[in-house]
Amino acid sequence: YRRLAENFASSVGAVGTTGSEERAERAERLANITYDDVLRDRVAYGTPDEVVDRLHQLRDELGLAGIIAESNVGGRIPIERVLNSIRLYAHEVAPRLRGAQ
Predict the structure, then answer these.
(1) How many whole angstroms separate alpha carbon 50 and alpha carbon 95?
(2) Residue 12 burial by CB count (10 A; 0-12/13-18/19+): exposed, middle or buried?
(3) 71: how many CB neighbours lie within 10 A of its CB?
(4) Is the distance from CB of 9 to CB of 27 less than 8 angstroms?
């Protein structure tokens, strides 16, 4: 999130961008976010059942119509675990999300 905050901060006032005040506020929020904040408010993790439940919760709370998945932020997870997570998502999570409105 720090990198994202830096991107927002560097775009404040740049030619062709709008909403500089909102960008500055968002940059500040992202720069100050903690790991616990991320786990509590922004991600779905755990068993397939836990991920499905969490994504349903986020959908209901935020009105989400889709997700962006980052399976190895920071590149610290071994590739075998990342691939296993992607397989579990594809086979056990995604089918349970389709059409669940």
Answers:
(1) 14
(2) middle
(3) 13
(4) yes
Residue for token pair 């920071």: 74
Q: What is the largest CA-CA distance in the chain?
A: 46
Instruction: Read off the tokens for 26.
Output: 């968002």
Distance from chain centroid for Cα 12: 23
Determine which helix (DSSP H) or strand (DSSP E) holds 84, and give its type and residue range.
helix 79-88
User: Could you tell me the residue ranges of all domains in the chain?
Assistant: 1-42, 44-101
What number of residues does the chain have?
A: 101
Angle, CA 95 vertex, CA 42 and CA 84 arms, to 5°:
70
Cα radius of gyration rounded to whole Å, the chain: 16
Question: What is the value of pTM for the model shown?
Answer: 0.69
- Per-residue pLDDT reduced to its tens digit, 29-83: 888 888 899 888 888 999 999 999 999 999 999 888 888 888 887 788 999 999 9
